[in-house]
Amino acid sequence: MNRIAVRSLVGGLRGARNYNRYISTAVAARPLDGAEFLNRRSGDGFSGFYWMRMMSSAPQTVAPPVGTTSAEKEQKESGSSVGDGGKKGSDSNVVVSNYWGIQRPKIAREDGTEWPWNCFMPWETYRADLSIDLGKHHVPKTFLDRFALRTVKLLRIPTDIFFQRRYGCRAMMLETVAAVPGMVGGMLLHLRSLRKFQQSGGWIKALLEEAENERMHLMTMVELVKPVWYERLLVLIVQGVFFNAFFGLYMISPKLAHRIVGYLEEEAIHSYTEYLKDIDSGKIENVQAPAIAIDYWRLPKDAKLKDVITVIRADEAHHRDVNHFASDIHYEGKELREAPAPLGYH
Ligand SMILES: [Fe+2]
Ligand SMILES: [Fe+2]
């Protein structure tokens, strides 16, 4: 067990050393920061494809399957294999056995261009609801509410001290935490559904969707900010502590757990609002939006960082509402499955 933990720790930190290689395998040995990379790109007329290749995570190249037609084989050999980011060529020696007949069908964007991502599909993309009320606040009414709000305000103190106004870094680190509650809640409701032979009312899916959406926030932020080794170490420690603490809390009081998440989301809205202020004032450069964000939120091709932060903030407002709503259901002495789950937004 200890050996597994040590191996995981070393692997995680080793990942930090290799991080630049993952986000930009096609560039020279010296890593580029986001702004520098983008400046270079805008000046030399790279194609859209090259852009995707540069800014995205390591792709998965798939060998031609048994029974593939010669035309398809030709197309694959010419380098049109699909991976996350649509990378071609250099990884073509990575062979994945396709004996089992597993093959992704051809998927295209609305404009007919090839869909470059394996990590999410076009039908999982959406336009964020920017009309959502960002200023909503749940006024604490009970002791548990006040405890939840006080806990979140206390957690903010070390975060403010550690990150100060480095909002890119702060957002990236906080998204590693924000993606945990939905997964824990969804998992526990899933197990409960199995134990009790009961439907979940859609809440398993709703909470897992939230976790996935938060993870996509993280996948977007890591395209813009590169975590250093001690930040990766911090993520390992915080994840270990937070996952177990939230798991225990959800078992004891889902009412309190959802209320805490609701208040955490309110803080996230505040942080992203400050982030936007720094972009507006020029303290943070309003760089080109990462390709993954453009496809995930169906943003225009010329979208900027400000557009990305704006849609992420709208997502956080949606999570705030969902979690306060879930807590309210419990406050009424009901189970989540008795109220309709907010499915379909993401
Ligand atoms: Fe988030
Ligand atoms: Fe959130």
From TrEMBL:
GO terms for molecular function: alternative oxidase activity; metal ion binding; superoxide-generating NADPH oxidase activity; ubiquinol:oxygen oxidoreductase activity. Binds 2 iron ions per subunit. Belongs to the alternative oxidase family. Coiled coil: none annotated. GO terms for cellular component: mitochondrial inner membrane; respiratory chain complex. The lineage of its organism: Eukaryota, Viridiplantae, Streptophyta, Embryophyta, Tracheophyta. It is an enzyme of class 1 (oxidoreductase). This is Ubiquinol oxidase. InterPro entries: AOX (IPR002680), AOX_sf (IPR038659). Its EC number is 1.10.3.11. Its main location: mitochondrion. It comes from Pyrus ussuriensis x Pyrus communis. Homodimer; disulfide-linked. GO terms for biological process: alternative respiration. It is a multi-pass membrane protein. Residues 61-90 are annotated as: Disordered. Keywords: Electron transport, Iron, Membrane, Metal-binding, Mitochondrion, Mitochondrion inner membrane, Oxidoreductase, Respiratory chain, Transit peptide, Transmembrane, Transmembrane helix, Transport. It is found in: Mitochondrion inner membrane. It catalyses: 2 a ubiquinol + O2 = 2 a ubiquinone + 2 H2O. Its cofactor is Fe cation. The chain crosses the membrane at residues 172-191, 233-252.
